[in-house]
Predict the 3D structure of the following.
Amino acid sequence: MGDYLYKPNRSADWNYGGGKWKLSRSKIDLFTECSRCFYIDNKLGVARPRGPAFTLNIAVDALLKKEFDLHRARGTVHPLMKKYGIDAVPFRSEHMEKWRENFIGIQYRHPQTGFLITGAVDDVWINPKGELIVVDYKATAKDGRIESLSDSGWDAQYKRQKRRTSLRREA
């Protein structure tokens, strides 16, 4: 039972200026949502209480990763990619597991600020032109069909995440 107690304070090494501090998508979202909360979290080391775990979503992500990994190993197209006309295959890389790992993921040090920006990916695909496609699986327990991002309570975060990915591909 003690493992579930709220423990807001963390080691200073994980706060801004500490050797392990990283800027992630969720930290950027926190800043966008509440800059005061971002400061309290990143500078003072007092984290917000965590929300509920989305167990169903986590399970769907894990199953999709396993399925796509089978096709990655074989070099084949997943049936969903065929169904939706996605001209790509899962990208083969010895770094895939590292890229998927939280707190490691793909990392970029921003030269002007020195910030280490990190993000774990769900998958990476490659098209015939050799372009890499970063994939983030989204699962929902919503009843009915989802036609657009605005059908979800998370639409603002998803749109910011999609826009950042699109901008990176163009750069």
